[in-house]
Every structure is written in structure tokens, then in C-alpha cells.
Write a structure and sequence with these properties.
single chain; about 325 residues; alpha/beta; TIM Barrel; 11 helices; 9 strands; PLC-like_Pdiesterase_TIM-brl; phosphoric diester hydrolase activity
């Protein structure tokens, strides 16, 4: 009898381990992209600000004037102009992102920086100028790749600053992502007021992102518009980490966008391709961004594609659709 007790204890231990292994194996099998093969088709491409000039990211901070540190231009387009957006679509972009902020006369101007000195020949805050004043600026004035010795884009973008309405009208039916640059509910309210005038079918092709307050103003009036912010993405990912192992996708993840660096994606159930499929089933886009997700880093050079998961069928964020589009189809 004394020898039977340890044998029963050993049997219980092995039974417990076997059950634990079966649970782990079941979780892995139920959330493994490897068992389902690669994603179908090529990645979709989000062109950040159309075709944009790129710049080295070392030392970049919130106040860095990136126009004064661009790489030698590989093209002559200036970001956030209709011509740069059209060029991005022409070379293979599936969606174009552009920046919007309110002018002094309440117009939805397409421009990135809160101030004008970095990129243009103007001065002061965008919010303190009328649209007519902004239209007179040279949007390529400040760009230089050699510490100011030359300005290769100067004079090429005079008068090219568009409004959100003009961008939407220029690309009927195309996917557009609007970035509200100022996290002010007034900006979101103004954008929502314009979007509310569009047909319901057109709204299905427009998404909005930005700060928590400005995006919430859009969502409050137009809950049918795909929208995202830091708070929205956080709520979705926390809920998914808690319940995604079951295959369930919480309502907080429905009809939004997730802008994810690859390093964070690897912790999500079903990453990469099963995760993308689950989000697609609830009408949510998964957009892979470069690096740590700071400073709008994108997949801009051929070697950047080495970091893209095999068979990726989600979205890729890029500043150089002209470089990436010919290569992305083979991913």
C-alpha cells in the first residue's frame, strides 16, 4: 500500500501535464496562421500623404522640421497635394492618406504642420490664416537635402494646397484616410459636417483617424464612418488579447483600423494572417507600419519588405508607393 500512493501521485501528475499540453496544443491550433497557409493576394498599399519626400528618422522629435533633412529627391512631388495623391494611385496605391486642419475662416485645409515656416514661404499658424492666404503659398519652398545649399522643390507647388472637399471630389470611389491633425472637437465637428453631405455609398470609402477628441466628434455624428484613434485601438487590442484566443472579436474592434508595428502584432492571437482575416470579418483594416510606429515611418525601400510577414494580406503603410508597389505583389 505504501508503494501505491506515489504511483497514483505520479499518474495524476502525468495526467495533469497531458491535459495542460492538450490545452496549449488546442490554443495553438485554433490560433495558428501556420496551419492555414499564407494570406491570399498581395498586400494593400496605403500611400501616406500621396507620394511624399522621405527623410532619415535619427534624431527626429516633435519640433523637427523634416523638410530641411529630406533624402535627395527620387521624385518631384510635394506631399498632401492632389497631384501627389494622383501619382500614388497611378502607381498602385489602394488608399491615400491626407492631413486636414481648420483655417481661420473654417475651411478644411489639407496640410500637415501646425505652422508654415518649415515647408512653405509663409509664417505663423495654419489656423490663423484664411484658405485664400494659404492658397498663395509655395508648398515646396523649404525642402532641402543639402542643408539649404539647394531647394529642389522650390517653385514647384505654388498654389497647390487643396481642401478636403477637393480631394474627395478628385478621387471618386477611391479609398481615402483623413488624418485630423488638431485634436480639437471643433475640427472633428467640421469634418463630420462635411462628410454628412456625402452619399452613404461614398462614406464607405472614407476613414478618419487622429486624436481621441476630434475622432470622437466624428463618431458621435457619423457612427457608420470607419474611424480610429489611440483610445479606439487600445480598447480593441485589450479586448482581443482577453478573448481572441476563442476566435471571438469584440465589438470594440468592429469597423475600425489598427495601425500596428510588427513587433506588437506578434503578441496577438492568430498573428499574422489569421488575425488579419478575423479583423476583416468585422470590417476592420490591419495596417502594418514601419519601425516602432513613430513619425509615420513606412515601408519605403525594397529592404523594408524583409520585415513584412510571409503571405501578408493586410495593409502596408508607405511614403513611396512608386518603389513598393512593383515589389509588393510578390510578397
Amino acid at each position: 500500500m505504501r508503494e501505491a500512493k506515489p504511483r497514483r501521485w505520479v499518474r495524476r501528475l502525468w495526467l495533469t501535464l497531458a491535459v495542460a499540453l492538450l490545452v496549449v496544443a488546442g490554443l495553438w491550433a485554433g490560433n495558428s496562421s501556420a496551419l492555414r497557409g499564407g494570406g491570399e493576394g498581395r498586400p494593400s498599399l496605403l500611400a501616406h500623404r500621396g507620394l511624399a519626400q522621405t527623410f532619415p528618422l535619427d534624431g527626429v522629435g516633435n519640433d523637427t522640421c523634416t523638410a530641411t533633412r529630406i533624402h535627395p529627391p527620387g521624385h518631384t512631388y510635394v506631399e498632401n497635394t492632389i497631384v501627389s495623391m494622383r501619382a500614388a494611385f497611378d502607381v498602385g496605391a489602394d488608399m491615400v492618406e491626407f492631413d486636414v486642419q481648420l483655417t481661420a475662416d473654417g475651411q478644411l485645409a489639407v496640410f500637415h504642420d501646425p505652422v508654415l515656416e518649415c515647408r512653405t514661404d509663409g509664417t505663423g499658424r495654419v489656423a490663423d490664416h484664411t484658405l485664400a492666404e494659404l492658397r498663395r503659398l509655395d508648398l515646396g519652398y523649404g525642402y532641402t537635402a543639402d542643408n539649404g545649399a539647394t531647394h529642389p522643390l522650390r517653385g514647384t507647388a505654388v498654389g497647390l494646397l487643396p481642401t478636403a472637399q477637393e480631394v474627395v471630389a478628385a478621387f471618386p470611389g477611391r479609398e481615402l484616410l483623413i488624418d485630423l491633425k488638431d485634436d480639437d472637437p471643433a475640427d472633428g465637428t467640421a469634418l463630420a459636417g462635411y462628410l454628412a453631405t456625402l452619399p452613404a455609398e461614398r462614406l464607405t470609402t472614407i476613414s478618419v483617424y487622429g486624436g481621441d477628441h476630434s475622432v470622437q466628434a466624428v463618431r458621435s455624428r457619423l457612427p457608420q464612418v470607419r474611424a480610429t484613434s489611440r483610445a479606439i485601438m487600445k480598447d480593441c487590442l485589450v479586448d482581443y488579447l482577453a478573448t481572441g484566443w476563442t476566435g471571438h472579436v469584440a465589438d470594440s474592434c468592429r469597423r475600425t483600423e489598427l495601425h500596428l508595428p510588427r513587433r506588437y502584432g506578434q503578441y496577438l492571437w492568430g498573428w499574422p494572417n489569421l488575425f488579419v482575416d478575423r479583423m476583416r470579418d468585422v470590417d476592420t483594416r490591419v495596417i502594418l507600419v514601419g519601425g516602432e510606429g513613430d513619425w509615420s515611418e513606412g515601408f519605403d525601400q525594397p529592404e523594408d519588405l524583409d520585415a513584412v510577414p510571409s503571405g501578408w494580406s493586410g495593409w502596408l503603410w508607405t511614403n513611396r508607393t512608386d518603389v513598393i508597389a512593383p515589389l509588393a505583389g510578390g510578397r
